Amino acid sequence: MNLTKNEKKNILLIAISSLSLILSFALSLDYISWIAVILCGIPIFKECISGLITEFDIKADLLVSIAIVASIIIGETFAAGEIATIMAIGGFLEEYTVSKAQSKIKDLVNMTPQFATRIKNGYEEKIPINEVKTGDILKVLPGESIPTDGVIISGETSIDQSSLTGESLPVDKTLDDEVYGGTINLYGSFTMQTTKISRDSALQKLIRLVESSAPENANVVRQADKWATLIVAIAFTSAILTYLYTFEIARSVSILVVFCPCALVLATPTAIMAAISNLTKYGILVKDGQSIEELARIDVLAFDKTGTLTHGTPEVVKVVCEDEEEMIYLLASLESKSEHPLAKAILKYYNKNELAEVSEFEMHIANGISGTVKESKIIAGNRKFLKSQNIALKYGENNPNNEIIIYVAKDGEVIGKVHLADTLRETAKETIKNLKRLRVRTTLLSGDNSKTANHIASEVKIRNVKAECLPEDKTDYIQGEQRKGNKVAMIGDGINDAPSLRKADVGIAMGSIGSDMSIEAADIALINDNISDIPHLIALARKTIRTINISIGFAVSLNSAAMGLAILGYLNPIEGALIHNISSVAVILYSVLLTNYTSSERNLKTPKKLGIPKTLNTSGR
User: Fold this and answer.
1) What is the number of helices (H) and of strands (E) in the chain?
2) Catalytically annotated residue among 225, 304, 505, 529
3) For the chain, which domains are there?
4) Does 476 participate in catalysis according to the annotation?
């Protein structure tokens, strides 16, 4: 058990106080109980006075303070000491449990490397991380944290990205692959060129999101705080009326102790922080507690297409030719001279180092490329370009899925063609299926033409499609749904998605490939771009609200019953303190179960109404 210095101090104070109470009881010496009153009672008094002076915040500490003072007045020093000690124990358990629920998040901050090895003018030098500039060449040894984001320019390795992306297995990296600051280089050494300074790295972006994460701004938290203030007033009034009727101060003290609204106040923030902690294990970061509450009531989830439902980069999906090995070899050799995304897709498909020399290379913007490979004139491009070169086309023109087609000609004769497309994410179909189980309606909002958008929608079984959308079209759709009384979530990755992410009730950004602007505009970031986690995100949000409602119902019911017993004289102050803390700790432990919650098949089937109280409320070249 890793304890902070403050937690160790609190344990020591509780231990000394408990010992003093044991000695007081064993030796029948009431004055020894003063040790417990001083050590555990003074912090409660200070918290009470601070709340009253700075914010005039009437909290549970006020009732406890009055109960301790009243016990002393009636000569029950032992009772006062025991109340203070039990409250201190309950407070420690509350603080410890909440801090552990957040520990997964706080660990991110400790991942920031402090130094980097820079190679400059052929020499290696150790420099502070804040001196690293974009374009610097850095060397990373096995076992070291990668200083900042960049691209490998020599060497190959495997990298542990689990703390950043949630991937459980190491990721192999080689030439031209991206690496991220704060991740761990496991095996080989490599050199990298930085693409971002440290403060703009993926890790620092996450830390800023984490630091802005808080449950306090959720409506359910604000409502719970209002109810807590009301309960304090009810308890105080009941205690006074009971004393005026019975003239037994012990009963009044018991009422004050037992009806403290600690459990009510703690139920919501503890549950929300436990949920946020759970989501970090999936590579999901939530900016605030309000997003959890809004997600629980989502009716419609709107998807951007490129980079969200699809990978966002073109891939070879079909090759048509008589000799694929020769054609791809010639095409890859020619494309190796180009920096175009389509060229990179073809080289990735070829996946070999054997390339021929290319001479007389030419780029024909928006049409294709040409050059001499192994003494043959190779031309690769679209239909228009080949026709302009008087090359007869063959292999047919059928293209039902609106894919990009590159025709390849050798010495004036077409030898094949390559189909490229932005491919669906492997988990897209299952994600939409699970969202339907949650009774969340899905919509595709795409800037692509109608043919492409409808093809992708039919693949994943999304019925509602809006194609050729400009940014304002997406926000208009969201506003239209909101006017109908629907709660709308939007998930996207590009700069053009930022307005709709901001306009939606909940904006979800693709954190890894998403633009900085879209992440800043969103409420939630999927750091590992895994859209299959969205059903878990929504199921957990609903489970969190249900947990809060059950916890509050339990706490209010138990405390109300206990207050009735106290009014009738069946509970003394010590027993009241014990019941009060049992309810508080039970609520916290129940909330913390959310930390390990996993969405199963059963969790993805939900009734039509969740029952949340209103009061808690592409084109070619």
Assistant:
1) 21, 22
2) 304
3) 5-105+213-275+541-596 (no CATH), 133-196 (2.70.150.10), 284-310+425-532 (3.40.50.1000), 312-424 (3.40.1110.10)
4) no
